[in-house]
Design goal:
Helix content is 42%, strand content 17%. The chain has helices spanning 14-25, 43-51, 65-74, 90-95, 97-118, 152-170, 204-212, 240-257, 274-285, 309-315, 323-340, and strands at 5-9, 29-34, 56-59, 80-83, 122-128, 175-181, 183-185, 219-222, 234-235, 237-239, 261-266, 272-273, 291-294. The N and C termini lie far apart (39 Å). The chain has a 7-stranded parallel β-sheet, with helices on both faces. A two-stranded parallel ribbon has the order 7-10. The chain has a two-stranded parallel sheet with strand order 8-13. It contains 11 helices and 13 strands. The structure holds UDP-4-deoxy-4-formamido-beta-L-arabinopyranose. The site of UDP-4-deoxy-4-formamido-beta-L-arabinopyranose has 18 residues, from helix 7 and strand 8.
């Protein structure tokens, strides 16, 4: 079993913690860097309860070059970095663009600076389907032209991808994989880790599970008059555990092939509408969600879903978790999380 060390920035977060579990279970030695601005240190205990191993933790803000230098100096034996640490609230990024550009770009630049300084040759970059904007043709492949981002958050992903392309072009011993996530949802089946949204959830499923738990009165469904099959927006909802497995496959691929750069869509290849998700949640949990039709939300694209064949062909990975299992995991986590957050 490989004991290669991987640094996971944002490893106490939703995607980072599930990826840390998958990496540890695959035999990697994981070091988590997180500033706990949008996450909690006790997530590390959840990772330990699942895997039997508590990752080493460095409380560090990736935008702080001095503490990052100390963290990477300590872990200069790492073979790679998975960089999740970023601000990711689309609406907040529209209201505070400079905060998003400063935070997300400085964090990434510090990470690649440290990789070059300590010759850590591999980076997996947490990108997003938002780089495709409102695609003309569906499903979306990695060759689908990028469109101007619809938010500063999305722009930081487009710019981040370009920074990494230039970085590996200038450093032939550096390799990168860009992973474009569609809509990650769900929680670990153990209910030991899951999504911990701050305040009112922006995203559909965490809001929906809070309605199911009686924390919110009803779900506002943002628009029922879209040019889609049932009038509701369509997305590609991918189980967070499947997404985590893709990161392990990406790291193994980079270590093996040493290709300069590659990009993969991480989705299921299926589009699901808001109403289909509400109904699927009801079938999976027996809970009918109270909802009201509300005005459209600015910035929402009518429909987007992936063609994820490239990740299957090259990484040998495919999203496999059935939607009802994902939704049951999300509900199990919601019923538990209320007992965790004091
Ligand atoms: C999904 C659908 C909403 C909430 C965003 C970011 C993306 C990534 C994932 C960070 C839409 C509808 C939602 C609600 C609703 N973020 N909805 N009522 O917007 O596809 O993607 O989150 O990595 O970059 O853009 O996800 O879950 O917010 O919305 O009707 O209370 O659910 O209109 O159609 P989205 P979402």
């Amino acid at each position: 079993m490989s004991s290669d060390k991987i640094i996971v920035t944002g490893g106490c977060g939703y995607l980072g913690s599930h990826t840390a579990v998958a990496l540890i279970n695959a035999g990697f030695n994981v070091v988590v860097i997180d500033d706990l601005r949008n996450s909690r240190a006790d997530v590390l205990d959840g990772i330990a309860r699942i895997t039997g191993t508590r990752p080493e933790f460095v409380h560090c803000d990736c935008t702080d070059a001095a503490t990052m230098a100390h963290a990477f100096d300590t872990h200069r034996d790492a073979v790679g970095v998975i960089h999740f640490a970023a601000l990711k609230a689309v609406g907040e990024s529209v209201a505070q663009p400079v905060l998003y550009y400063r935070n997300n770009l400085n964090a990434l630049i510090n990470v690649i600076d440290m990789m070059a300084r300590y010759n850590i040759p591999n980076i997996v970059f947490s990108s997003s389907a938002t780089v495709y904007g409102e695609p003309d043709i569906l499903p979306v492949t990695e060759e689908t032209p990028l469109q101007p981002a619809t938010s500063p958050y999305g722009q930081t992903k487009v710019i981040g991808e370009n920074i990494i392309r230039d970085f590996v072009r200038a450093n032939e011993n550096m390799h990168a994989v860009l992973l474009r996530y569609f809509n990650p949802i769900g929680a670990h089946p153990s209910a030991e880790i899951g999504e911990l949204p701050n305040g009112v959830p922006n995203n559909l499923l965490p809001y929906l599970t809070q309605v199911a738990a009686g924390i919110r009165d009803h779900l506002n469904v943002f628009g029922d008059d879209y040019p889609t099959a049932d009038g509701f927006c369509v997305r590609d909802y991918i189980d967070v555990n499947d997404l985590a497995a893709a990161h392990v496959a990406a790291v193994q691929y980079m270590i093996k092939t040493k290709k300069p750069i590659d990009v993969f869509n991480l989705g299921t290849g299926r589009g699901v509408s808001v109403m289909e998700l509400i109904n699927a949640f009801g079938r999976a949990t027996g809970i009918n969600i109270k909802y009201e039709i509300a005005p459209r939300r600015a910035g929402d694209v009518p429909e987007i879903w992936s063609n994820a064949d490239r990740a299957n062909k090259i990484l040998g990975w495919r999203a496999e978790t059935p939607l009802d299992e994902t939704l049951a995991n999300a509900w199990r986590w919601q019923t538990r999380v209320g007992k965790i957050i004091k």
